Task: structure prediction
Amino acid sequence: MITFNGAKCTKKQTEPPARYSQGKLIQEMEKLGLGTKSTRHSIIERLYTVKYIQNDPIEPSQLGMAVIDALDQYAPHITHPEMTSELEDGMSEIAAGTRTKNDVVMNSRNLLAKELEALLPMKEEVATALADAVAADAYVGTCPKCGKDLQIRASQKTHGMFIGCSGWPECDVTYPLPKGKIEAQETKCPTCGMPQVKVSAFRAKPRVVCIDPNCSTNSEPDVVVGICPTCTDRGIMDAKLIAQRNPRTLKRFIRCEHYDICETSYPLPQYGELTPTEDVCEACGAPMVIIKTARGPWKLCPNFDCPSKEEEKAAKKKPRRKGKSTRKKKQ
Result:
């Protein structure tokens, strides 16, 4: 006798094929005759550098898709692998001695000149399409002041990244960005309704943060980590050293409560849970703190000018002596 245990009815839609990983893309390039073993990795790296692609598995950026769309419309031969493969074959024929360098170079110039001739008359249309794509890739959200686009930008002075309004200079709304790879998110902050970004930083788990530094989700309580050694030396007892974050720059640091007088300040890593200890550095007297990151907790002296750090650098630079091997040779 067969027992019927029930059945489930599911409704699904056709899913798109999986995106290429870097390894899979290299295999595909090999099949199509694009690049060589020594150049395929650098070709992919270049695509990341100019921001035509992003992430892994690989996703095309808005800029990358705009470049392909423009070339497909005005110079379609460039976007197909046959042209690149033809140029690669020419290089191989030079190496094999079946064609001359001048012949291959002249053929390559003629191919590119033909495509450029068709592309140049449409340069204004192409420039507009690319500018729109760059703006789309940089888009973060809507400006709360004027309603225009908030975009990821680079400072001309410091070359650091920040979020600014596309309505500048009429609108001066800006927000700082933490260090790391930044990706705009579709969902808004559940607390204040501002846009959010995903931050992927070295030695830290990716996290989604609100772009507004004044949002309560970004606030960190001040933490007393010890007593200021500079004030103690000057006879000011029990001056507190406080760990805090600057809401304008998002930088963390330890600073004396009498900073205007003693100017004692130590930088802190931007990420990681901070825990004070009762220990002080034997070399400089600064308070020892524990920073907990994705790789685990580590104890450090926050003083960059600590003499012990110079000793560590000198020890690393010192060459190791090669000792005699104690392993016995086999008879």
